[in-house]
Specification:
The complex is a heterodimer of chains A (114) and B (109).
Chain A: E1 5-7, E2 10-13, E3 19-24, E4 31-37, E5 44-50, E6 53-56, E7 65-68, E8 75-79, E9 88-95, E10 104-105, E11 109-113
Chain B: E1 3-5, E2 9-13, E3 18-25, E4 32-37, E5 44-49, E6 53-57, E7 60-65, E8 70-75, E9 84-91, E10 97-99, E11 103-108
Parallel strand pairs in B: 2-11
Antiparallel strand pairs in B: 1-3, 3-8, 4-5, 4-9, 6-7, 7-8, 9-10, 9-11
The chains are: A mainly beta (114), B mainly beta (109).
Chain lengths: 114, 109
């Protein structure tokens, strides 16, 4: 079956611009996670959805970052007033029924802020 | 604070065996995962340990000692395609994954 998909695969934007990153989880997976990963580092947790609600958003670095999952499937990560330090690979993962199940990752979106 | 430690890089020979260690200090423990990540790709699940002992899955095995806060991933009969980063991650008391920085494994012919 189809895995987790993310669009776009690459995004280059100028400092100060707004970006949206999309994640399509595996059908039927209720839990969805956003991470970001810098080169040579493990994934850094951003936010976790159980259904439509954000169950844990403690990893969002500041109020420029926001994520939604209005119908409990597709999720969008939104970054306002981008900064060069936001450059990273943004990974989305889903799991069938929340913790402690294994997470299935999408291919990621490589964001570059110039 | 929460901490996951694993070696930055290891080198091994094709056909040999390699052990990648992971030590952790987390607020609570609800399982330990190992993931494989090839360069430029997303992590893929390898193994899960929640009880002490060894879990074997083909050429890969994972061991856990909760009292020591220690795990290792054992890879046997190494193949060139095993060249990748291996990430250790622990589920804490909030059931969130805390990730190590990964161990880059280089396989030489």
């Amino acid at each position: 079956g189809a895995g987790v998909s993310q669009t776009p695969s690459n995004k280059v934007t100028e400092k100060g611009k707004y970006v949206e990153l999309r994640c399509d989880p595996i059908s039927g997976h209720t839990a969805l996670y956003w991470y970001r990963q810098s080169l040579g580092q493990g994934p850094e947790f951003l936010i976790y959805f159980q259904g439509t609600g954000a169950a844990d958003d403690s990893g969002l670095p500041n109020d420029r970052f926001f994520a939604v999952r209005p119908e409990g499937s597709v999720s969008t990560l939104k970054i306002q007033r981008t900064e060069r330090g936001d450059s990273a690979v943004y990974l989305c993962a889903s799991s069938p029924s929340g913790p402690p199940d294994e997470q299935y990752f999408g291919p990621g979106t490589r964001l570059t802020v110039t | 604070g929460q901490n996951i430690d694993q070696p930055t890089e290891m080198t091994a020979t094709e056909g040999a065996i390699v052990q990648i260690n992971c030590t952790y200090q987390t607020s609570g423990f609800n399982g330990l995962f190992w993931y494989q990540q090839h360069a430029g790709e997303a992590p893929t699940f390898l193994s899960y340990n929640v009880l002490d002992g060894l879990e074997e899955k083909g050429r890969f095995s994972s061991f856990l000692s909760r009292s020591k806060g220690y795990s290792y991933l054992l890879l046997k009969e190494l193949q060139m395609k095993d060249s990748a980063s291996y990430l250790c991650a622990v589920k804490d008391s909030n059931y969130q994954l805390i990730w190590g920085a990964g161990t880059k494994l280089i396989i030489k012919p």
